[in-house]
Amino acid sequence: MDLNSLYTSFNYIAPEITIAVALIMIVIFDLIFDKNKKIIPYIAYLGIFSALFFVAANFNLTGTNYKVSSLNESMGMISTDTFGSFFKILILVSSALIIFFSKTSEEIKKTFERAGEYYALIFGMILGMMFMVTASDLILIYLSVELLSLSSYVLAGFTKLRDRNAEASLKYLIYGAVASGLMLFGISLVYGMVGSTNLAALNNYLQLPLANVLTFTAAAVLIFAGIGYKISAAPFHFWTPDVYEGAPISITAYLSVASKAAGFALLIRLIRIGFVRFIDGDGNWHISGIFDWQSFIIIISILTMTLGNFSALWQNNLKRMLAYSSIAHAGYILLGVAVLSNHGLMAVMVYFFIYMIMNIGAFFVVMLIADKTGSEDIDDYNGMGYRTPLLGVALTVFLISLTGLPPTGGFIAKLYLFIALVDANLIFVAVIALLNSVVSLYYYVRVLKHMYLTRSDKDDLLFEISLSNKFFVTGLAALILLLGIYFTPLLDLVKNVSFFTL
Amino acid sequence: MEGFPILSLLTFLPIIGMVVVLALPKKLELGIRYTALVFTGLQVVFAAVLLANYNYAAAGIYEESSFQFIEKFRWIEIPGVSWLGTVKIDYFMGVDGLSVPMILLTAIISFIAVLSSWNISKSVKGYFALFLLLDTGMMGVFVSLDFFLFYVFWELMLLPMYFLIGIWGGPRKEYAAIKFFIYTLFGSVFMLLVMIGLYFSAMEVMPDGSKVFTFNIIAMMDPSNFTVEGILSPFNPNNYRFVAYLALFVGFAIKIPMFPFHTWLPDAHVEAPTAISVILAGVLLKMGTYGILRISYPIFPEITRDLMYYIALFGMINIIYGALCAMAQRDFKKLIAYSSISHMGYVLLGMASLTSTGINGAVLQMFNHGTITAMLFLLVGVLYDRTHTRGLNDFGGLATQLPVYTGFVTVAFFAAIGLPSLSGWVSEALVFIGAFSVESIRTLTMISTLGILLGAGYMLWTLQRIFLGKLNEKWAGLKDLEFREYAMLVPLTVIIILLGIYPSAMLDIMNTSVNTLVDFLAVNVSNSASIGLLN
To answer: CB of A365 within 8 A of CB of A391?
Structure first.
């Protein structure tokens, strides 16, 4: 690669460069302005919004860059396309929300003298995720997953306020190390067969019936293990409840949304570029016959959602319950991937956009309440709806949306998911998913029951929240309701972004 | 009336009321009550305006042009791309003879339920806000002609209902509320699946000639709109129409509630506050049978005909089983709840006959059941307010102490039993006549008539236990009805007597539509598959 093409390719990774620069800026500011940490979150905002600007400005930019060899022009380390841009926007928006989240959280405020580290690590995560959604080479995929993981291991135990923090961090690290080891082994198997780590090369290789089925299946499953760990799909989900419960709540929310989104984007790109032979006129992906992704993902997703939902039924800690609920949602979203068509992809993207808002909203309310009462136990939510009417109503909206009832965004997300499933004739699977969402109603409504139906002796202890928090919560809740009634813009956006650069 | 959005107004008036209620300060309880009363009162006025402008000769059912007060505009429209056709969802409302009686019923019952909630003292603001939201959901279901819209309204009522039972209910309110919620959601997720299946099977022709998938219920009734490969299309030899019909039917049956899906109802009724019981029995149950007539019947005519025997069978089970259960109750409210199950069985039986008489009777029975059972629950509430007990054996001889109250109870009981010249008699007679005329379900009909006997049994026995005999000294200080209670009982009594003497007032509204529905079912059952294949 000559210098000139290096220079022109800057355009393709402008957002990533911005994030990297912002990361360095945060570290420098942290060192120079030792006394004034208050400025750091604003540098973070600046970095995120500049990156957002670059993504938006180059939204339709497509191409592949950082070629691995001069022989084949189409095989680069990264693929810039609208699919990636959509997920980058998703990641950046949720990061911006999380920065606001972190600024409010008492947990993070208590460790404010280390704010520099905190935001630097968040940016490490962002950078990892940005590369994950755009990487089209197994080496870069592995590196970006590691970058994301290493930053998040530290963040999971960041506050060191409770024993739980250390447990979370350690568990995350150990599980993560195993998962990435498995993934690396899978990658090495692919390299051994294909002779290249590039996904496009993999695709070319699979067009011909050369591969050994057994070895290849092992490789695919191993690589999926790495990704499944990131999206907390069963049976790689065991770390999720403990880490989500132990980590600072802002990080929990972040892990449950952004890091999952990146994992899904990666999985979709892996299948779409690595395995799809061709796409027919109806948008169905025809996969190389060597590995039956559809059956595999369907089994995993049914397992994931059922385990997630049934485990959530017994939880008494709201954070832990939301952790299991996020596992269940990963199961639903996996079904969208399993459809293996543009419709399924559309459903995944709609789902993620709405899931981001409702999940961050739910975690935010839980955090605000925990900051006042010092507890995340569902029993301590008795009468909460009367003590803080706004938060009560907002949490109701988020939980109802997570259940998937109209007129909230969550219903639209589920609707498009089921539309994709029915369209692909996967009706049996749709029935299982629907029954699952009936089960989920029970534990979501259980929170409402404690908030409104059970009174406590503290009913009169109203508590105040700041105006900016009120706006934030009301904004998210209003957005969820709006998306339930008028979702044209979201669908319009999503239907146009199913473009991949091979 | 041309161009005046009366249906949207009817539907969203309560929401406006809800906003007003929420804006009022918490302390202003009387203001909140009056706001709710005014807005539900306005709803009654608009329902009356609707009736005054309603054309009795227009049929509706399957013909979009003969629906009235149509409001139709594009709600969601997303232009297609190569792999994805145009997505469109309409905001589509309209009424015909099936929905107008239900709209009248909803408006009247909501108004009366507000009156009966007057003494609610716990979180008045929250109560009336949720109540008005519930009202919107109910009204919306009866005016929607787009499946998507229908579903949104259908689900919209769940949450307010959950809270209304759960917060303001009796001792076991939490159990009753979640049971109601989960049962109904269980039913409606299957409805969702059928809705999506139908969406992918029916295409509507747009004005520019293109064809797009549609949620339009009317379009789904026309076999020529079905695609060849759609999973719920009659032209697809491997279609799932039968399974879909059952799934949809279960969704509606849970609401009716049909045996064996009825177990949520007694719990919900016993725990719910009086006004909510009134809404539940008066309006909510009707949504199940209305849904079957509006959606299941005309979209799946051939399967309806195949299964009519079983619908009648379950109707019969409902009648007998509900009555037997009612007989065994010691709790006044639970007794009424089971009698309500029994009476909904008549609706099922009438519907299953697929004759004009039978379905006319069924729809009339829906209206009558709404008024009679609502009145019964109100009366239970009146007694409970005074004595704080509902045990049937705790009373005795109240007739001397509460003569006016006893009079109202007697009217309501006799209407429920089906005494001639009261409204219940007309609809039950029509149901039996209609069902008896059909050879295949004649035996079931004959067994069902036992329900009347059993009904007379438990009703008269109750009357005896509460009102006759020696006065229990404990109740010597009870006061008879007050003005507010007159205000809610008198209108219902008037309706019950009026429809008993002159049932045509209601039958004329629905008759044209019901006849059209019956004809449509008869024609379409035999021809639907062949019409399409010939084309």
So the answer is: yes
How buried is B287 (Cβ within 10 angstroms: 0-12 exposed, 13-18 middle, 19+ buried)? Answer: buried
Distance of CA A280 to the CA centre of its chain: 29
- Among A430, A449, A491, the residue with its CB nearest the CB of B78 is A491
Q: Does B226 reside within a domain? A: yes
Instruction: Output the CA–CA distances (angstroms, integers) from residue B400 to A453, B397, B404, B407, in the order listed.
Output: 40, 6, 9, 11
Binary contact (A449, B178; C-beta < 8 A): yes
d(CA B275, CA B120): 10
Q: How far apart are CA B416 and CA A373, in angstroms?
A: 54
B1 domain residue, yes or no: no
pLDDT average, residue stretch B378-395: 86
CB pairs under 8 A between A and B: 97
Of A418, A452, A487, the CB nearest to B193: A418
DSSP B281: I
Of the residues A448, A474, A494, the best mutation for testing chain B's interface (the one with the most B CB atoms within 10 Å of its CB) is A448
What residues of chain A lie within 8 A of the CB of B87, using their CB? Answer: 491
Q: Which residues contact B484 (CB under 8 A, 6 or more apart)?
A: B115, B118
d(CA A324, CA A317): 11
**Which residue of chain B is at minimal alpha-carbon distance from A488?**
B76
Ordered by start, the domain boundaries in chain A are 292-502
Would you state the structure tokens that stand for residue A377, as one six-digit string?
Answer: 């136990």
Contacts of A400 in chain B (CB under 8 A): 159
| Confidence at B531, pLDDT banded by 50, 70, 90 | very low
Shortest CB distance from B197 goes to which of A422, A441, A453? A422
Cis peptide upstream of residue A241 (ω within 30 degrees of 0): no
* CB contact (8 A) between residue A422 and residue B189: no
Q: Which domain holds residue B38?
A: 6-534
How many other CB atoms are found less than 10 A from the CB of residue A439? 18
Closest residue by Cα to residue B214 from B228, B202, B229, B226: B202
Q: CB distance A453–B174 less than 8 Å?
A: yes
- How far apart CA A60 and CA B140 sit, in angstroms, is 42
Count of domains observed in chain B? 1
Provide the pLDDT confidence category of residue B533 given band limits of 50, 70 and 90: very low
> Is residue A290 predicted with pLDDT exceeding 90?
no
Mean pLDDT of B287-297: 92
Within-domain flag for B24: yes
To the nearest 10°, report the CA torsion of B299, B303, B304, B310. Answer: -150
Please state the length of chain B: 535
Query: Looking at chain B, which residue has its C-alpha nearest residue A342?
Result: B83
**Of B365, B359, B363, B351, nearest in space to B312 by CA:** B351
- Residue B408 within any structural domain of the chain: yes
CA distance B185 to chain A (A): 6
